[in-house]
Write a structure and sequence with these properties.
Blueprint: H1 3-6, E1 14-17, E2 20-23, E3 26-27, H2 28-35, E4 39-43, H3 44-58, E5 64-68, H4 75-83, E6 87-90, H5 93-101, E7 109-111, H6 118-126, E8 131-134, H7 137-150, E9 154-162, E10 183-185, H8 188-199, E11 203-209, H9 220-235, E12 244-246, H10 264-277, E13 282-285, H11 289-292, E14 296-308, E15 311-316, H12 325-329, E16 347-352, E17 361-368, E18 376-379, E19 400-405, E20 408-413, H13 418-421
Parallel strand pairs: 4-19, 5-6, 5-13, 6-7, 7-8, 8-9, 9-10, 9-11, 11-12, 12-13, 15-16
Antiparallel strand pairs: 1-2, 2-3, 4-14, 14-15, 14-18, 16-17, 19-20
Helix pairs in contact: 3-10, 6-7, 9-10
Bound molecules: pyridoxal-5'-phosphate.
């Protein structure tokens, strides 16, 4: 493969076999025949490399690295990340259950959420989860009530929303003006929450948290956030020797060759001075996308090709049902024809999905070789926030998910059936 062109967006085991694109030595067109399309293929080597790379980068800081399960909650993927010794950030009872099913223990997980249910809080307290990340004062009192009823203590972090604004899509920004997450910082509310936890019989403050947003390329905002968390930590009354200060996730990935991205070691290096100067605090991070996005390819079969206003409109058998991201916040992807990855492009094409929405466009203006009905199209960097955000819109069954490693493929999630679609109807 033209390495410099595709390297930032293809999985680590990608290569050419007999003129076609292959992962772990298996041709994509062969996998598509065997498992049908749309098909999501996770490369186990990339997942393991990404996890190890992040752990190594943060080892000098003795930082805890957790995976944000919202990016991909496929159990087979979570199990691989568990074996690699990551912690898990979950945001619902469902993700908590996914973590347990993937063999994470309660001590490996922390629970986020800006509107947790009473039963989620109860489950988390009962199982003695590593930390419950409090988002607001109502939740704080709710949790105290739950703890008092169960006569159990809970470790809590407070989620802070400093007035820092990451340069990213507004829907991917989680601090700054009018965001819905956490305690505005500084604010009276933040102070009241810190005091309430300090006074509480049942809650023990074990950390402070900030997640700035996603697709962040400039590390300086992480430094400012760390500084802010340290300032807050210094103002906390009582024993704070074991406080974890979590900087969330958000490291950008490249969706197309040439896009900027942020590697683990750059974030770690940026955070190091602040934590070295305050070594009683333990750093923590919880990347999602950066660990799994590049590990997967989505593979679709082309139905029709039309020409409109000089651009080919290539319709494929998936789309916004399995990947809502372009419609949600305008993500731009690349595309490859896996049977002829080295052929020269002849002009632009829009890869459109099969769903009844004009916004169902997976990739716009991508340069492609000649393409016809029956061909396969791969969308790289499909491992994060696609299947975990998938819907059954238009009642299209959701795709199968496989993993590949050393010439072997494993089915992780079977393709959904029509019966699955109606399983909850009375
Ligand atoms: C609280 C929190 N932590 C971590 C993440 C992971 O972000 P990313 O996948 O961009 O690393 C998110 C994403 O929404 C989040 O909300």
């Amino acid at each position: 493969l033209p390495a410099n062109k595709w390297e930032p967006v293809l999985p680590d085991s990608a290569g050419i076999a007999g003129g076609g694109l292959a992962l772990a030595g298996l041709r994509i067109d062969w996998l598509a025949e065997r498992y049908e399309t749309p098909l999501y293929i996770y490369d186990e080597t990339t997942l393991r490399n990404k996890a190890r790379h992040a752990l190594e980068a943060f080892a000098p800081l003795k930082a805890r690295v957790s995976f944000a399960a919202k990016a991909c909650s496929t159990l087979g993927v979570l199990r691989i990340l568990r074996v690699e010794m990551l912690g898990l950030d979950v945001v619902s009872g469902g993700e908590l259950e996914a973590g347990l099913r993937a063999d994470f223990t309660a001590k490996d997980m922390h629970l986020h959420g800006n509107c947790k249910t009473a039963s989620e809080l109860e489950t988390a307290v009962e199982m003695e989860i590593r930390a419950i990340v409090l988002d607001n004062t109502v939740e704080l009192s709710q949790l105290e009530t739950v703890c008092a009823r169960l006569r159990k203590h809970a470790r809590v972090w407070l989620r802070m929303a400093p007035s820092l604004e990451a340069e990213t899509h507004p829907y991917l920004r989680t601090t700054g003006r009018r965001v819905k997450f956490g305690f505005a910082s500084p604010s009276c509310e933040e102070q009241a929450a810190l005091n309430a936890v300090a006074r509480s019989r049942w809650l023990k403050l074990s950390g402070l948290h900030v997640h700035l947003g996603s697709q962040i390329t400039d590390v300086r905002i992480y430094q400012r956030a760390a500084q802010r968390l340290i300032e807050i930590a210094e103002s906390v009354p009582g024993d704070i020797s074991e406080l974890e200060l979590s900087l969330g996730g958000g490291w950008a990935v490249a969706y197309r060759p040439g896009d900027s991205f942020l590697e683990a070691e750059r974030v770690a290096a940026a955070l190091a001075p602040a934590f070295e100067a305050h070594d009683s605090y333990r750093a923590a991070v919880e990347p999602g996308r950066a660990l799994v996005a590049r590990a997967a390819l989505a593979v679709y079969r082309v139905g029709s090709v039309k020409k409109r206003d000089g651009v080919r409109i290539v319709a494929v058998d998936g789309g916004m049902g399995d990947n809502p991201r372009p419609a949600l916040y305008g993500t731009q992807y690349a595309a490859i024809l896996p049977s002829r990855p080295l052929d020269e492009p002849v002009g632009p094409a829009d890869i459109v999905g099969r769903y009844c929405e004009s916004g169902d466009v997976l990739a716009r203006d991508v340069l492609l070789p000649p393409v016809a009905g029956g061909d396969l199209v791969c969308i790289p960097v499909s491992g994060a926030y696609q299947l975990s955000m998938a819907s059954t819109y238009n009642l299209v069954p959701q795709p199968a998910v496989i993993s590949v490693r050393d010439g072997e493929a494993r089915l992780l999630t079977r393709r959904a059936t029509h019966d699955d679609l109606f399983a909850r109807e009375i």
